[in-house]
């Protein structure tokens, strides 16, 4: 199996060194970038398997880097945020980040987040069993990691794909936000269920589901979400 590459983009050298130590422990090859512009260049030249991206960086901040990366790649991205950057964290998820780590962090959390994101991105494990589901105007193909909605190919991040797949393969079943966190992210999110809402919002925006569609992603108030197939 090829050694996977982790790109760590942070202007603080000590943060890069700490993260490199954790990643070395996992057996990853580590690439470093000290500012946003360098991060973009390293994404293009080094083709990493995952990007750990600080929000507050010189030249180009992490949010802009995330936007630029999403224009050219579905590379898994974990944002690094400070505790008082709540709005930036949510914005990061909205523009395509797969996850976030809040500073200060600990080694177990970093290891869990990296492994979970890579696993969900399909770079460590293959999907087993059914890999394709179809509804009127919608095809989700996990083998090709592709969504086609109303004749248009959609670009989805790994988390968005997994979340849509979970709902669509269980039509009519209501999932709580905590259930979706456990199923998709694979570990406790410390009660921060807003990340589910953010991903659902982005999925809906991309699908642009028309009013006459025979299916929909429905909000169950006070509970969570379900994939609803409408009766004739």
Structural descriptors:
8 helices; alpha/beta; four-stranded antiparallel β-sheet; five-stranded parallel β-sheet; elongated; 232 residues
Describe this structure in words.
Strand 4 (77-82), helix 4 (86-94) and strand 5 (99-103) form a beta-alpha-beta unit. Helix 2 runs parallel beside helix 3, helix 6 (158-168) packs across helix 7 and helix 6 (158-168) packs across helix 8. The protein has a 5-stranded parallel beta sheet, with helices on both faces. A 4-stranded antiparallel beta sheet has the order 6-7-8-9, with helices on one face. With 232 residues, it is an alpha/beta fold. The protein has helices spanning 13-26, 36-46, 62-72, 86-94, 107-120, 158-168, 177-185, 194-207, and strands spanning 5-9, 29-33, 50-54, 77-82, 99-103, 132-135, 138-141, 146-149, 152-154, 175-176, 215-220, 224-229. 35% of the residues are buried. The chain contains 8 helices and 12 strands. The longest helix has 14 residues, at 13-26. Mean pLDDT is 85; it is low at 123-128.
């Amino acid at each position: 199996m090829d050694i996977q590459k982790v790109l760590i983009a942070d202007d603080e050298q000590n943060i890069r060194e700490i993260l490199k130590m954790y990643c070395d422990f996992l057996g990853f090859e580590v690439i470093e970038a000290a500012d946003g512009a360098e991060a973009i260049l390293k994404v293009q030249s080094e083709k990493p398997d995952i990007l750990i991206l600080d929000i507050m960086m010189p030249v180009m901040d992490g949010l802009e880097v995330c936007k630029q990366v999403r224009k050219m790649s579905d590379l898994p991205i974990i944002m690094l945020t400070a505790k008082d950057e709540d709005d930036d964290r949510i914005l990061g998820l909205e523009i395509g980040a797969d996850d976030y780590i809040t500073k200060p962090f600990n080694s177990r959390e970093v290891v869990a987040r990296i492994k979970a994101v890579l696993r969900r991105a399909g770079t460590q494990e293959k999907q087993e069993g059914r890999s394709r589901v179809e509804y009127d105007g919608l095809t989700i193909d996990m083998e090709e990691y592709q969504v086609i909605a109303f004749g248009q190919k959609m670009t989805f991040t790994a988390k968005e794909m997994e979340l849509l797949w979970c709902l669509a393969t269980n039509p009519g079943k209501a999932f709580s936000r905590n259930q979706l966190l456990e199923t998709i992210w694979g570990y406790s999110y410390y009660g921060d269920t807003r990340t589910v809402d953010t991903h659902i919002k982005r999925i809906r925006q991309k699908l642009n589901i028309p009013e006459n569609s025979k299916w929909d992603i429905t909000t169950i108030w006070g509970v969570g979400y379900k994939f609803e197939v409408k009766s004739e």
